[in-house]
């Protein structure tokens, strides 16, 4: 009898054997309530955290479900202390409930644990959020709803918010059955499921739906999910996004797939200040401050009767927006993202102020169904010259040392070889450092777009790429988000932001939109061997490994062979 694939340890870490026949099943099971922290070749390490347990509970799992799943996966029996830890941490979800008193609709916080109530009554941090007691419940001012939830999660106690929402000013529209080009349009099954998971049954005031995050990979139609939620709620909606390019993609999608008239969609950005039933705003403009440090555009949030606020790419939410969101808890809030990973560690802020993860689906599951492209991922390791390695090892500053490795000139030959290998693919060359990108663009005579490129130039280049008049494009980190180029089928990553898992996922997402023909996408990462860049690459790949992707590691010579185009590369092993 084959032993089970996992070893569950008393520190709530879980070791998963990659070569086990049940690896994929175990990986999908663990991802519901644990986070991947290491993914070397043979053993992947997961960790069960309070936040991972609370997200699982919010998604409908019980603490008994979690324990039963662990016991089924574990090679050895679970220790009593481990069971106690999981039951205690998971059990914290639901101990505190925020709701309306049926007598007068006052906002009250109730606890099922008398000792916890006593602790809260003595906590100076929490006391300032209360305005008195009513029996065994704490009275809460509506304006303190978000701040209270935020402070309680920092104490290790998430709040189930059942206090309901303002409906917002009515605004009805319908999704089209055909887009404006005449193509059939409708929600895919997983999109419908994500809408229902977010809204909750019947959308009643006592349900938990109406706040939270839907996580789907780039190309899987997160915007469509947002539009479907808007249609169901039929109210004035504020949509916040990372930049103007993203706003205008939202506008394009709304006009293409709904019957909303153009005059009902407003843009609130550095270029325009329009307030309409559907208003599109950038994070940058809403966090803009005056000379005295006050937020100039804060009234945009509170002076309008929004029934729904959509946070696009919620993993990028700037910290000041959390301050605004704390005062917006009476409005439904939908976060959309490819990954909930935040490199600043503020995932618990998203949980408490936007809401828990309501729906996600493994990227590989969507790939198997043909909803996103089949991605083949490669890491190409190149040597450094003796002179460059000497400069690298003698550089005392970490950032400068990393940059020396990232800007290794030997990467140029590999880039050229990859372009020869994929003459028919639409290729994005993506990097972090502008000097490096400019050298690549100049040597290969490829157009380049960076943060300093004007909006008009970006749109022109993107249009040329979509229309097939441009087959290759060099882009900086502006390509990490809101780059709608369905034709892109190959990405060559030449440098990145240290060990950013978020960035790795976003960059792969640029090429995941389904393709008309082979539906295969190629993702290459070029790193300098035996350097910190190689170490960071392993960390960058963690989230994608959790989703089921595996990188094939190749030496530079595998690409620089005499006739690279005639020698197919090995396909990544199934994860």
CATH topology of the largest domain: Rossmann fold
* Count of extended strands: 23
* Largest sheet descriptor: 7 strands, parallel
Q: What's the CATH first level of the largest domain?
A: Alpha Beta
CA-to-CA gap between the ends? 23 Å
| Spatial extent as radius of gyration | 25 Å
Instruction: Please state the structural category.
Output: alpha/beta
CATH homology superfamily name of the largest domain = P-loop containing nucleotide triphosphate hydrolases
Proportion of β residues? 15-25%
Oligomer: single chain
**Share of helix among residues?**
25-40%
Mean pLDDT: 90
Q: What does the secondary structure layout of this molecule look like, with pairings?
A:
Elements: E1 6-8, E2 13-17, H1 23-30, E3 35-38, E4 43-47, H2 50-58, H3 63-73, H4 80-91, E5 96-100, E6 107-111, H5 114-122, H6 124-127, E7 130-134, E8 137-140, H7 145-154, E9 159-161, H8 189-199, E10 211-215, H9 222-233, E11 237-241, H10 244-257, E12 265-268, E13 278-282, H11 283-286, H12 299-302, E14 308-312, H13 319-326, E15 332-337, H14 347-354, E16 357-360, H15 363-368, E17 374-382, H16 386-394, H17 398-406, H18 411-421, E18 427-430, H19 434-444, E19 448-449, H20 455-466, E20 472-475, E21 490-493, H21 501-509, E22 520-528, H22 532-540, H23 542-547, E23 551-555
Parallel strand pairs: 5-9, 10-15, 10-16, 11-13, 11-14, 12-13, 14-15, 17-22, 17-23, 18-20, 18-21, 19-20, 21-22
Antiparallel strand pairs: 1-2, 2-4, 3-4, 5-6, 6-8, 7-8
Helix pairs in contact: 3-4, 7-14, 8-9, 16-17
